[in-house]
Task: inverse folding
């Protein structure tokens, strides 16, 4: 019998990885040798498949109190020039190790606030990257945008450059919540930016909401959902607020008593899911939703969904490059994360070295476990026949320990263990991060103090 919702929340509410990769960065090695990455790049250059590129533009004009991103608050525009020079040096460095493999199928700009850059600098950054790594005609070219800092000429310039997908951060439309997260975004700003993007012909307009923010109630979040749905976004992301005050000092300004309790957090997510699905949106993985005509929804149906450090995708390169501070590369079985501090990243790349903060070389076992975790998070099932066909292993035998852990979850009503595989239930989709943790061979080895966001 399924437990009452409040008991399920208590059972599952604990810190855990989001599994945009595997293993996650806390398990990676510091002082990772640059030669390891160069060796991986030599192998990658022999591949003919297109690449993915993530670019981190770290600048913000102000720090929102809820933010968990790697950002540099700079009211002064002067640091942009040094950043662009370093970006050019880093792109040249990647290109020198990939002399015959440059074609790119996915380009994503995140931050920070990418539109902190003015139009001439947006154009310059785009040319720096695409002159060395040209985009395929069918490439997904996406950017994250904060509507509170957007000049009238920026979206037209981005569209002209070739950006075809834009994600607008909304978080919540309630005035009191906006005040508590020190953002100040209005409905008028959101409406005008979405309208402009539609008129410019962006093929995908995504909206990002966050549940669990200070001051949120069922009524306020319902109004936010209903208002954003009037804009008919192609995709919606509903992220859980990661409250990590020990790691993120600026979050300490949030009054703890204003944060929703775990039961309310889950209620907010369940309500969002119910409203979105009632409006025809298809659940994608654990926190994304897409209209049925969107390529992401079609990919789920066809089993083509991809998950990487840029999130869920329809098409992505077999290898991905990371540009900018804190960006992560995944090349020929090697993860490498850049230095997070802007000045350290700039010094490394301008001196001709990869700015490696930490890294990891995956074993075949790691790659198989990553595939299993991402497969379950994308399709909410793992069929033993599929595992056998791809990896040549007998699932019930190889993952006997994981299955033993999952048996304890069956009475919760979140997962079914059948003879042909593992199947996450509708209720279990909300706890899928917990349900893939038994496949993580590194989680138990990490220090208890490792900072992960809460799973509920």
Result:
């Amino acid at each position: 019998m399924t437990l009452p919702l409040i008991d399920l929340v208590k059972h599952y509410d604990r810190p855990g990885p989001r599994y945009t990769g595997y293993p996650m960065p806390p398990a990676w090695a510091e002082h990772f040798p640059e030669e390891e990455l160069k060796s991986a790049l030599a192998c990658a250059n022999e591949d003919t498949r297109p690449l993915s590129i993530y670019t981190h533009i770290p600048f913000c004009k102000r720090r929102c109190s809820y933010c968990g991103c790697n950002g540099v608050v700079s009211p002064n525009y002067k640091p942009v020039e040094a950043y662009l020079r370093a970006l050019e040096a880093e792109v040249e460095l990647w290109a020198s190790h990939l002399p015959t493999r440059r074609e790119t199928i996915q380009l994503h700009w995140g931050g920070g606030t990418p539109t902190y850059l003015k139009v001439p600098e947006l154009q310059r950054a785009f040319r720096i990257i695409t002159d060395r790594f040209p985009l395929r005609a069918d490439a997904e070219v996406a950017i994250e945008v904060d509507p509170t800092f957007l000049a009238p000429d920026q979206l037209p310039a981005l569209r002209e450059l070739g950006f075809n997908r834009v994600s607008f951060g909304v978080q919540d439309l309630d005035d009191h919540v906006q005040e508590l997260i020190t953002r100040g975004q209005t409905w008028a700003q959101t409406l005008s930016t979405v309208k402009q993007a539609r008129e410019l012909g962006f093929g995908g307009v995504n909206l990002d909401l966050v549940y669990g923010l200070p001051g949120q109630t069922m009524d306020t979040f319902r109004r936010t959902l209903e208002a954003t749905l009037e804009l008919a976004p192609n995709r919606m992301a509903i992220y859980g607020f990661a409250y990590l005050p020990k790691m993120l000092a600026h979050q300490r300004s949030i009054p703890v008593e204003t944060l929703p309790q775990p039961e309310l957090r889950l209620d907010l997510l369940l309500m969002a899911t119910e409203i979105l699905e009632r409006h025809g949106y298809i659940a994608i993985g654990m926190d994304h939703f897409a209209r049925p005509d969107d390529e992401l929804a079609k990919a789920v149906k066809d089993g083509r969904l991809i998950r990487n450090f840029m999130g869920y995708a329809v098409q992505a390169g077999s290898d991905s490059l990371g540009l900018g501070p804190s960006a992560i590369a995944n090349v020929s079985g090697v993860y490498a994360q850049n230095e997070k501090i802007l000045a350290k990243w700039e010094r490394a790349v301008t001196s001709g070295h990869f700015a490696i903060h930490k890294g990891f070389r995956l074993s075949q076992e790691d790659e198989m476990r990553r595939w299993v975790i991402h497969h379950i998070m994308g399709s909410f099932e793992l069929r033993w026949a599929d595992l056998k066909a791809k990896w040549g292993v007998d699932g019930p035998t190889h993952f006997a320990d994981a299955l033993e852990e999952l048996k304890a979850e069956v009475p919760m009503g979140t997962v079914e263990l059948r003879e042909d595989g593992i199947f996450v239930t509708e209720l279990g989709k909300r706890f899928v991060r917990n349900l893939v943790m038994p496949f993580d061979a590194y989680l138990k080895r990490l220090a208890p103090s490792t900072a992960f966001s809460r799973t509920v």
